[in-house]
Design brief:
This protein is an all-beta fold. It has two domains: 149 residues; 183 residues, Sandwich (Immunoglobulin-like), CATH 2.60.40. A hairpin with a 4-residue loop joins strand 16 and strand 17. Strands 2, 5, 6, 7, 8, 9, 12 and 13 form an eight-stranded antiparallel β-sheet that branches. Strands 15, 18, 22, 23, 24 and 27 form a six-stranded antiparallel β-sheet that branches. Strands 10-11-16-17 form a four-stranded antiparallel β-sheet. The chain is built from two helices and 28 strands.
């Protein structure tokens, strides 16, 4: 039985895109420009209304871009406005808005307008190698007209498009003491393209995978679960269905399947005798000394959905899993037993944000 706790946490977020006209449109000549009021934004470390300063939006009339990837900046009145002051259309034509955050530079991928269609996609997005550099990608779709929305505003509801992953650990084992200094999230896919119209991901055809590593201060496990993600914060990874590593039939993980690892030292509580890493393990650490901590792993399966935060609580009370596939003696059981899991999934409540599009006050 595996022991994982999954908590799904909703955090609102926001953004808009840049600016381009295809051909002249009939627009109002007064100062009633389209503007936005912020909701909340977040990434692996949360962004709030207080620290959100720049958002992005693309707008269409029919299949024609009205403005594209326009940067809107927060003013002292908490409204986001563009220096271009884009106006509502005089003919009361419906405008379709696609909003996202953070910027293309931060995402490391291009937002591309679809051919002959009112829509766009984030092409070949790649999750950053370092957890500390990973971002929370957020989008919203809405439409509006001058008649219906110039005064009341257009409501935008922003959703997270990645999955947030946190690893915690605990132990109530009276015989062994577990000290932890790091964590690995092994072999999820990391490249995909996002469609703003359908709000769906298409993963890369090559199914490239990666190993994400984070270090933390030395932590002695107790009966209270503790985060072991360290200063990098939680991981922001691609939504996907995971196939679990098989430590018995594929100890070296040639199939490049999913697992979680913890960098741990296991010793007897009564006399301090080190049980793991093993006494014959001569692997050197980064300082050139024989290491005092080794990686232990558990296979990881299940589905990561976009917009959900998963908290995996690894319980070492009755076992310590298997030797990591990249360590000496891969796949071997540690302490002769498996880490046990309990799976709890809490309901995730949407955090909707009303984002009025109101006239700019001169």
């Amino acid at each position: 039985m595996k022991h994982i706790q999954l908590f799904l946490i909703a955090v609102g977020a926001l953004s808009l895109a840049s600016c381009a006209n295809d051909e002249p449109l009939s627009i109002r000549s007064n100062d009633d420009a389209i503007s936005f009021r912020s909701g909340m934004a977040s990434r692996a470390s949360e962004t709030t209304n207080a620290n959100l300063s720049s958002i992005y939006v693309t707008a269409f009339t029919g299949t024609k871009p009205y403005f594209e990837n326009a940067n809107y900046v927060k003013g002292s009145d908490s409204f986001f406005t563009s220096p271009a002051h884009y106006k509502w259309l005089e003919n009361d034509e419906t405008i379709q808005f696609f909003a996202y955050a953070p910027s293309q530079d931060e995402l490391g991928a291009d937002v591309i307008i679809k051919d002959n269609a009112a829509g766009m996609q984030l092409e070949s997005f790649s999750v950053a190698e370092d957890i500390a550099d990973q971002v929370d990608f957020i989008t919203a779709n809405a439409s509006g007209t001058r008649k219906d929305n110039e005064t009341t505003g257009v409501e935008l509801t922003f959703d997270h498009r990645l999955s947030q992953i946190e690893i915690q650990a605990k132990s109530e084992n009276p015989t062994y003491t577990f000290k932890v200094t790091g964590v690995r999230i092994g072999r999820p896919q990391y490249v995909g393209t996002f469609d703003f119209n359908t709000n769906t991901w298409t993963l890369d055809d090559w199914h490239d995978t990666a190993v994400y590593t984070s270090t933390c201060d030395e932590t002695t496990l107790s009966s209270t679960p503790q985060s072991i993600m360290g200063k990098s914060g939680n991981a922001m990874l691609m939504p996907q269905t995971l196939t679990a590593w098989n430590p018995v039939n594929d100890p070296d993980n040639v199939a490049r399947e999913a697992y979680l690892s913890v960098l741990v030292q296991i010793s007897r509580t009564d006399n301090g005798f080190q049980m793991y890493p093993y006494s014959d393990d001569t692997t050197k650490d980064s300082t050139g000394n024989i290491r005092k901590f080794g990686w232990v792993s558990i296979p990881l399966s299940g589905t990561w959905e976009q917009g959900k935060k998963y908290i995996y609580t690894l319980d070492f009370t009755e076992g310590a899993g298997n030797v990591d596939p990249d360590d000496p003696h891969p796949g071997e059981p540690v302490l002769g037993g498996d880490i046990k899991f309990k799976v709890d999934v809490n309901t995730w409540t949407d955090a909707d944000q009303d984002i009025p599009m109101l006239p700019v006050t001169k």
